[in-house]
């Protein structure tokens, strides 16, 4: 399960120091410097490379290992070693930073979209725009939202020619995972049908949650969501608000629209129709005591284990601003100290091919980051859930792309704003106190340059 948590802040200066100390030697097992080796079984001399992702479970890790072995066997000049990162949330990124400083990090690795700027500004990952052009790796083949954050000039904080910090591995989006049996038992309206009829509004959503809670049986709750930035952030976006100003240089959490979204979220929890804020919503959903569980596509493999009730997914309810689901993504990036940038780009090219993205999507956890009707059509065949269209609609209907703060510090923003939101949700401050203090807290934390 991929529960995103508040990030532990590593000061930028520390990251830069770590980067400056990074070794390009292969001594002691460092992968930052891979060296070519000959292989009689391959058509060209193979370069040794290590690469890493953060799989959610052993089944996903096994798929990546199989992909890695298959690429090696193709004879394209890559002799690969795959490593499964086994820590959730910020510890995964923090470990990478430590290894990058020590010269022991992999040549290619995956990181969340929010962390791209942090790694790039610290000099930890390679700008491989020139190498990608030489290899024929075209960023325009992928969704615009992630690419806009991967082609940024750090000096201006805006997309510019000559920059490419990574290629998106996949995209995801939120949906409501539904216990259809609980909904039927409570006599509540079906969110899937309400959405088809254009009636799936915040008010209807609250009504369904209340109905499930009241009539679903002992211990049943209508709604659950985990307590990280994207869950409450959706309601902020859907109210017409946002985390940041349009140029992403200032906090916007105190705007009237952003506060309205946060107030709805708070009122929903105060209604008594939800699992307690801060508690993991996935176990009670899988255990059959939650009617609607808000989570990303990555929750699908776990939901496929459910045998005791009928489940499906529905779109998120619509607030004042249509669309505005999150477009989650992460990217394959290249160690700035790799001795073989051309080979590393070749690996990124292989890992983001349509064929490999299809294999990853078949697990049910991700949507391919490549654009195209043929890619979407294939994704729709990966069931359950039956209503995969809910995820596709979230990706294509004006989503808000997860992205880094190029002119600021995302970990600092995340921690400061999350501390205030936790205080609000736990009753320590009022909505008015939250509105008057949340942006100041992010500024005081050093979230903006």
From TrEMBL:
InterPro entries: Bact_solute-bd_prot1, SBP
UniProt cross-references to PANTHER family, sorted A to Z: ARABINOSE-BINDING PROTEIN-RELATED, SN-GLYCEROL-3-PHOSPHATE-BINDING PERIPLASMIC PROTEIN UGPB
Signal peptide from the UniProt entry: 1-22
Protein name, as recorded: ABC transporter substrate-binding protein
Location(s), subcellular: Cell envelope
Main location: other
Family, similarity comment: Belongs to the bacterial solute-binding protein 1 family.
Domain of life: Bacteria
Keyword terms of this UniProt record: Signal, Transport
Annotated Gene3D superfamilies: Periplasmic binding protein-like II
């Amino acid at each position: 399960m991929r529960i995103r948590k508040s990030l532990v802040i590593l000061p930028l200066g520390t990251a830069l120091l770590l980067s400056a100390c990074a070794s390009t030697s292969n001594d002691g097992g460092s992968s930052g410097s891979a060296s070519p080796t000959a292989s009689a079984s391959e058509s060209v001399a193979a370069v040794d490379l290590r690469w890493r992702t953060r799989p959610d479970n052993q089944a996903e890790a096994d798929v990546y290992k199989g992909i890695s072995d298959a690429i090696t066997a193709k004879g394209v000049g890559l002799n690969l070693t795959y490593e499964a990162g086994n820590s959730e949330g910020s510890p995964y990124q923090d470990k990478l930073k430590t290894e990058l400083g020590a010269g022991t990090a992999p040549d290619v690795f995956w990181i969340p979209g929010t962390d791209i700027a942090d790694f790039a500004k610290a000099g930890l990952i390679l700008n491989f725009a020139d190498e990608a052009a030489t290899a024929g790796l075209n960023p325009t083949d992928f969704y615009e939202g992630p690419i806009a954050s991967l082609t940024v000039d750090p000096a201006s904080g805006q997309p510019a020619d000559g920059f490419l910090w990574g290629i998106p591995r996949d995209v995801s989006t939120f949906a409501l995972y539904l216990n259809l049996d609980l909904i039927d038992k409570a006599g509540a309206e079906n969110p899937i049908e309400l959405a088809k009829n254009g009636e799936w509004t915040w008010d209807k959503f609250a009504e369904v949650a209340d109905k499930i809670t009241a009539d679903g049986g002992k211990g049943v709750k209508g709604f659950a969501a985990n307590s990280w930035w994207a869950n409450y952030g959706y309601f902020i976006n859907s109210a017409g608000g946002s985390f940041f100003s349009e140029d992403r240089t200032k906090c916007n959490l105190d705007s009237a629209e952003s506060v309205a979204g946060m107030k709805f979220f708070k009122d929903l929890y105060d209604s008594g129709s939800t699992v307690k804020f801060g508690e993991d919503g996935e176990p009670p959903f899988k255990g059959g005591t939650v009617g609607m569980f808000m989570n990303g596509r990555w929750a699908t493999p776990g939901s496929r284990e459910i045998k005791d009730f009928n489940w499906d997914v529905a779109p998120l309810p619509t607030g004042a601003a249509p669309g505005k689901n999150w477009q989650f993504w992460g990217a394959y990036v290249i160690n700035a100290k790799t001795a073989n940038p051309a080979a590393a780009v070749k690996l990124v090219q292989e890992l983001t091919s349509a064929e490999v993205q299809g294999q990853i999507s078949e697990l049910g956890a991700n949507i391919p980051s490549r654009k195209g009707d043929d890619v979407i059509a294939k994704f729709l065949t990966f069931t359950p859930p039956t209503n995969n269209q809910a995820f596709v609609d979230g990706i294509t209907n004006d989503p808000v792309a997860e992205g880094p703060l190029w002119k600021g510090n995302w970990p600092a923003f995340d921690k400061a704003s999350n501390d205030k939101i936790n205080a609000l949700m736990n009753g320590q401050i009022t909505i008015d106190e939250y509105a008057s203090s949340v942006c100041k807290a992010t500024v005081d934390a050093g979230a903006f340059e």
